[in-house]
């Protein structure tokens, strides 16, 4: 189960790296505006905020990825702690998005599905 949790952690990290790219580097482009539902003016006015927010997503991906590396290296305690810190934060951010922006619940589900599965499988794997 730990391996399945690690796979979902990697998928969550990859998704957050993609979100990092979209927010930090492609924010004002047509594709990113379509994904996030912003206008050109809104994107221009919020590009500094999105740039910063994108790096939050990147750092969560890095923490999660380092956690998986420790899991695979046999350091289960360190790996689990880092993996739970990264995926737990991703999951919490998805919950905040769902609760604060009902119109973005679909995005919250997409953002939170991999981290949720990672947490569930890692907990099961560590308890069994």
Structure in words:
With 128 residues, the chain is mostly helical. The protein has one domain (2-127). The protein is built from five helices and no strands. Helix 3 (40-72) runs antiparallel to helix 4 and helix 4 (76-100) runs antiparallel to helix 5 (105-127). The longest helix has 33 residues, at 40-72.
Features:
128 residues; 5 helices; transmembrane; DUF1304
Task: Give the helices and strands, then pairings.
Elements (H helix, E strand, L loop, with lengths): L1 H23 L5 H7 L3 H33 L3 H25 L4 H23 L1
Helix pairs in contact: 1-3, 1-5, 3-4, 4-5
What's the SSE pattern?
HHHHH
Q: Could you give the count of β-strands?
A: 0
Beta-strand proportion: under 5%
| Fraction of residues in H or I helices | over 70%
* Beginning-to-end CA distance, first to last residue: 9 Å
Shape label: elongated
Largest sheet: none
**C-alpha-based Rg, rounded:** 15 Å
Number of helices: 5
Secondary-structure-derived class: mainly alpha
* Overall tally of domains: 1
**Could you tell me the mean pLDDT?**
97
Uncertain spans:
none
Pfam families: DUF1304
InterPro entries: DUF1304 (IPR009732)
Keywords: Membrane, Transmembrane, Transmembrane helix
Protein name: Epimerase
